[in-house]
Amino acid sequence: MYLIIFYQPIVLVSQLSEYTQRAIASASPIVEVLNTHPDVQDPPSGRDPGRLRGEVRFENVDFEYVEDVPMLRDISFTVEPGKTLALVGPTGAGKSTIASLVPRFYDPEGGSVLLDGSDVRNMKLSAVRRNVSMVLQDTFLFNGTVLENLRFGNEEASEKEIAASAEAAGAHGFIRALPQGYETQVGERGLKLSGGQKQRLSIARAVLKDAPILILDEATSSVDAETEAEIQNALGRLMAGRTSIVIAHRLSTVKKAHKILVLDEGRILEAGRHEDLVRRGGLYHKLYKYQFGGAVM
Fold first, then answer.
1. Which of 11, 150, 182, 270 stands the most exposed, by the fewest C-beta atoms within 10 Å?
2. Residue 111 near residue 271, CB atoms below 8 Å
3. Among 51, 20, 225, 231, which residue's Cα sits nearest to residue 132?
4. pLDDT at 132
5. Which SS3 state, helix, strand or coil, does residue 264 take?
6. What is the pLDDT of residue 221?
7. 48 CB contacts (<8 Å, ≥6 apart)?
8. Residue 257: how many other CB atoms lie within 10 Å
9. pLDDT at 297
10. Given this model, what pLDDT does residue 219 score?
11. How far apart are CA 132 and CA 211, in angstroms?
12. Exposed/middle/buried for 240, CB within 10 Å: 0-12, 13-18, 19+?
């Protein structure tokens, strides 16, 4: 009995050493991430302009992910408050990169990105991102309830405001039909929901945030035609009165934009409205002819 009592602490000590080594190995990559300093930093005296009107302007913007490999070259355009700008072009043309520069996920190598006339590098990061909502192709949902995922758009929102945002996004009906309604667990990355359902939750989250600038990056590319029509109706309600930058390969989703920029290899090749670009006979005309057989609609 004495031997058993004597050996038990020794076994526990040996196990503790093994657990410690495992913990150190597991913690190493976590510590590495926590110690990483982001390239984009808050300016020392950054200003907070409050809620913006929503004007977005790019002035001679150059950008590269890899040194000496330009991604964007001399990009200049203006989106007036409440207007819609569409970005189209082949894969790798720089559309998503432009969208990433607006909320200052990256800083340009040259030129300036301005919101309401102010360079985003002179504004607080929190102020910039508070004024921008994004609905992306790959919707990220946390392993929590529907309510918790929606509240991520506005942590102070009441349940009534959340329900109203879901109604505007066309999501209230399917949420009520879930086993526990708004308290239903969605699973990691929303694995318990369909693609269309996840997308509508993302739209509801953007409605709840109520930012003046909206970025839609391929928001309907991964759903079927019927679901796309429902999501387009929800997006139409979300875009009303907001400055919108829409990225899409399906040209049917950008025909009503106030201005369309056609990008290729990081440059703006064409700019104008849908009908004008189709008749011009350039890259947009080729893309449109490929998708729709060339009939102007």
1. 11
2. no
3. 51
4. 92
5. strand
6. 59
7. 123, 124, 126, 127
8. 21
9. 46
10. 67
11. 5
12. exposed
Residues whose CB is less than 8 angstroms from the CB of residue 288 and which lie 6 or more positions away in sequence, other chains included: 251, 277, 278, 294
d(CA 117, CA 146): 37
Q: H helices then E strands: how many in the chain?
A: 10, 10
Instruction: Show the CA angle centred on residue 74, arms to residues 131 and 76, nearest 5°.
Output: 45
Helix (H, G, I), strand (E, B) or coil at 58: strand
The amino acid that residue 159 corresponds to is E
d(CA 275, CA 296): 7
Give the side-chain half-sphere CA count within 13 A for 180. 9
Rounded to whole angstroms, the Cα distance separating 70 from 68 reads: 6
- What are the average pLDDT values for consecutive 10-residue runs of the chain, which has 297 residues? 80 83 88 85 86 93 90 93 90 89 92 93 92 84 86 83 84 85 83 81 86 83 63 75 85 82 91 88 83 56
Distance CA 97, CA 106 (A): 9
Taking the C-alpha atoms of residue 270 and residue 171, their distance in angstroms, rounded to an integer, is 37
- Of 82, 238, 264, 109, nearest to 165 by C-alpha is 238
Q: Which structure tokens are listed for 46?
A: 């950054």
Q: Which position has the token pair 């693609």?
A: 195
The amino acid at 23: A
154, 210 Cβ separation under 8 angstroms: yes
> Count of CB atoms within 10 A of residue 268's CB?
21
